[in-house]
Every structure is written in structure tokens, then in C-alpha cells.
Amino acid sequence: MSAWNRRDIGRLRKQMVQQGRDSSEIASEIRMRARVSMLAAYRLAAGLSQPELVERFSEASPGVFMDQPLLSRLEAFPGPGGRAPLATQIITFATIFEVLPLRLLAPEALDHMEPQERDVLIRCSITSPPKTHADTGQFGLSVPPRQCPQVEARLERQVLMAARRAMRFGTDAESCNVGPEGIDQLRDDVARVASAYPQRPLPELLGELAELQEVTFGLLEGRQRPRHTAELYLLAGVLSGMLAKASHDLGDPHSALTQARTAFICADNIGHDGLKAWTAGLRSMISYWASRPNDAVRYAEQGAESAAAASGTASVWLPAQEARAWGLLGNAERCRAAIQRAKEAREAAGRDELDELGGIMTFPTPRQLYYAADASIWLPGAEEHAAQQAEAAIDAYQRAADVDQSFSDEAGARTDLALARAAQSDVEGAADALEDVLDLPVDQRIEGIVASVRRVHRILREPRLQGPAAMSLQQEIEAYTRTPAAAALPPGR
């Protein structure tokens, strides 16, 4: 915003109001001096902050998505980092500011809009009478009254009626409720949360996840073009899948499976093999941690056909998860066969839309190594092999790129190493492996980690391991598991 700040703009605005200037004159002066877009200039002329304008937008058009990051990008358009506005968005802003929509766009900005969006705004201006009198009172400004107030009021009503009619037209042209820009914004938000999920505490993400799911469901309940419907179903499935994982991480397998079922329905509606395989792996994982290994195998087998047709890393996750279920059932042959299928799937896997979202929606090599360790740890006589797999997974996480990091899966690998060492009567080695896990803050103590640590507690009860070292480690585990991640959520969440 050049060297001008809000105080400078406030002084200019007050000065021009006292001079009897109208809102368009004030906005034009702010644009010239502060070097901002027309949309930003009208907001500043109104004395509104971005959050305040977002609130007014939501009140004026409750079915149209808007938040502060999106508003910032709209105000930056057509400059670097800007996003081209939709006609419906500009018309809503024009309704709020009580001006013609085209006044909110400089000529170069209008030229850079999508042709169909630009045509809607031009039609709106053609059908609206020219504004021959000053804007009065729309920002709560004390502007002296002009001549012919009845004529001015009539023209204002005509302009507003035309703008609202154009908004309805623009909405229909956009198939009611969302267009490519809105889809892009939603996809960016989903990708950001998916990437953050394996690395940030769940309480920081849960609220936004639920809000994004609500927005996506709301859009699907409206009308949109078929290609946008498919994209919305994909994003709705991904969000429902992440909320299933969140419910599982908070120790609620029933809610987790409900969300996972919704994710599968979304995937099935659009025939997306990658998302169907991913949701099958998710349902299998939830059942595995709920101590229902036969259900875990059943879900994995149900998704096998989709996994074979999928092009992304969901095809690797499903057999890797199936191996854990067979391990829990003690079936070494099928466990090892599933681990091998996961290796073969890795060689053939590419990247699909889920992998492009990143984070929890992809299945990197370090996670695959952890799953192999977690599957092997259940097999009698495989403790040394499980320890080697766990150490390989830990080492892989130590060397992994930031995008492949996961505090929970690394903690799982360390816990499997502790289990393998305890099974080999190395209690001190088990305590050493668990050290970083027991240092995790409360908001990262998700259900899978807590359940894994409790496994170590159980094996330490064996008479052959009894002693001061085992008792000390058991006490640390008991203190750790007393306060899971759910305790870090805000009240009422």
C-alpha cells in the first residue's frame, strides 16, 4: 500500500467528507495516493477492515463463499498474488457499497477477468442507469444533502435492483453457487489442511476441517456445472476422510466410521478409484485400532479392486494396512504377502489428485516402512525383523523432506521399536526408543500413539521383564496416557 497507512487514509477520508465529496471521489483519491485496487479503495473509503467487509459480504450473500484470505487476493488483482473475482462477488460488493459494479474495477482489472464474468458485469452496467448524483450515506458518511433527493433515491433503488438482478443472472451463469475460482480456492484450502494434518496438533485443525466440510456440503446441495460437481464430491470425500481420521485420533471409532462411509459415498458417486481405495484403507485402519482385525481385513479386501485401478499411492496404503490386520490376527503368511504387494504397488504407483493434495492424502515411503514394522511386530519370532523395519522407518523420517514428515507415524515407528526391544528383554532399549514419544505435548497424543504406548505397557507386565526399570517405564506411560489429545480441545468442541 505504498507509504500510506490507515491513519493517513483516515485523515484523507475525514477531510474529503467535510468538503462534501462523494464516495467515488474519496475512493479514487485513496486509490491514487495509496496505490491500491479500486475494490480496496472503496473498502478503505468506507472505513471498513477486511474482516468487517467479509462479515457484510456473508450477510448480503450467505450462499457465496468469502473469507479474509480470499478478499486479500481479490483486492490484489490484477497484481501479483491476486485472484480474478467472480461477477457475483463484485455485484455483492457493489450492493454493499451502493455503487455500480464496474466502479469497483479499474479498466485493466476488468480486461483480465474471465470473459463470461466480464460480460455479466458489462450487462449489469448496461441495464443500470448512469449514476448522475453522488453516493450519499452508504458508508455512514456525513455528506451534505444534494439537490433533487427524490430523483437520487429513485436512481439508487434502480441501481440496486439492477445489481441484484445481475447477481441472480451471474449466479445462474455460474450454475448457481460456485465457479472455477471458488473451486480453486476451496481446493487450495483443502490442500493446505491436508498438508498440515500429519505435522500440526489436531486441535489446531479440527475447527477449520469442520467448516470446510460444511462449506463443501452446502455447495453440493446447490447447483453447479457437472465438472464442478465432480470436483466438489472429491473435495467433500477428502474432507470427510480427514474428519474420519480426526475422529479416530480423538478416540471415537463410531464417528470415524460414519465420516469414512460418507467419504466412500462421495468417491463412489464420481467413480474415483484412488479415493475409494484411500477410504477403504481408512476404514481398515480405524477397525485395526479398534481391535477389530477381521473387519480391517474385510475393508481392505473390499478396496482391492479400486486399489488395482488407482494410479496414486492409495494403492500402496491399502495392502500395507491389510498387512497390519493380518499381523494382528497372527497370520504370518498373509501378513508377509500383503507387505510384498505393497512393495510391488510402490514400484507401479504414480501420483493422482490425492497425492497432489499432499500430507495425509499421500503415502510416502517412510510411512510404508512404519506399517511394515507395525505388521511384523505381532508375529511370533519376528521381533528382530520388526526392530530392523522400525529403525529403517525412523531413519527414513529423519532424512525425509518436510512434506513427508509425520509426528504420529514416526512416533508409531519408535513405539514399535520399543515393543521389539521389550520382546527381546531389553527394557532399557525400549525406554530409550520411547523417549521422544513420551515427550510429545498433550495436543499431539492422538489415539493411535496412545494405543501404541499402551502396548508397551502391557508387554512390560510379563514376569520375565519385572524390575525397577520396567516399573519406572510403566509409570511414565501411565502418566502419559492419562491426558490424551482430546483433552486439549476447547470446551464444547
How would you portray this structure in words?
The protein is mainly α. It has 3 domains: 6-125, no CATH class; 179-308, Alpha Horseshoe (Serine Threonine Protein Phosphatase 5, Tetratricopeptide repeat); 364-492, Alpha Horseshoe (Serine Threonine Protein Phosphatase 5, Tetratricopeptide repeat), CATH 1.25.40. It has 25 helices and no strands. It has helices at 6-18, 23-34, 38-45, 50-60, 68-76, 87-97, 107-111, 115-127, 149-173, 180-196, 206-220, 226-249, 253-270, 273-289, 293-302, 304-309, 314-328, 332-348, 353-357, 365-376, 383-399, 407-423, 427-438, 447-459, 468-481. Helix 12 runs antiparallel to helix 13. The longest helix has 25 residues, at 149-173. Residues 127-153 and 487-493 have low confidence and may be disordered.
What's the topology here?
Blueprint: H1 6-18, H2 23-34, H3 38-45, H4 50-60, H5 68-76, H6 87-97, H7 107-111, H8 115-127, H9 149-173, H10 180-196, H11 206-220, H12 226-249, H13 253-270, H14 273-289, H15 293-302, H16 304-309, H17 314-328, H18 332-348, H19 353-357, H20 365-376, H21 383-399, H22 407-423, H23 427-438, H24 447-459, H25 468-481
Helix pairs in contact: 1-2, 2-3, 6-8, 6-9, 8-9, 10-11, 10-12, 11-12, 12-13, 12-14, 13-14, 14-15, 14-17, 15-17, 17-18, 17-20, 18-20, 20-21, 20-22, 21-22, 22-23, 22-24, 23-25, 24-25
Give the number of domains.
Answer: 3
Strand proportion: under 5%
Intertermini distance: 39 Å
Principal-axis shape? elongated
